[in-house]
Amino acid sequence: MNAFVTVGSTQFDDLIRAVLKPEFQHCLVKHGINQLIVQYGKGKQAFGDPKSVAGLTILGFDYAPEIESYIHDASIVISHAGAGSILQTLRSGKRLLVVPNESLMDNHQVELATKLASMNYLVTCSTSNLVEGLEELYPKILTPFPKSDCSTFQKVMQDVAR
After folding, report:
1. pTM score, two decimals?
2. Helix, strand, coil % over all residues of the chain, rounded to 5
């Protein structure tokens, strides 16, 4: 089983560093994850030459023409709170842990993640409590996101924009 991490097109070094910490890697292995795939965007330096704990392989890349196949193949997705990444993952039916990039200016990522978490579609956390976020995600029964109806997501976006 694998976990897929995406930071989108922005730089989110804090998330990259957080998923590479041994305590987070041990938590992944504990939950049966044996491969961590990291789309690090502009964070190549933060990704560096990662050291993995026993039982876990780490792969990384900057960008791909599409990430749908990575999401499809993942057991869980750990994502920045970009609307596109969230919607794509929710539509795939994958378990989603969202980590807003709180360093962005005029950032609605926190509001979007919080609203969708309150609707039980995903779990959200910060980079400082990523292990706790993962531990919350695993036993939680999430509400399936409506497959063909975008009105729920549009409503959330309208609420966040207000």
Report:
1. 0.89
2. 40, 15, 45
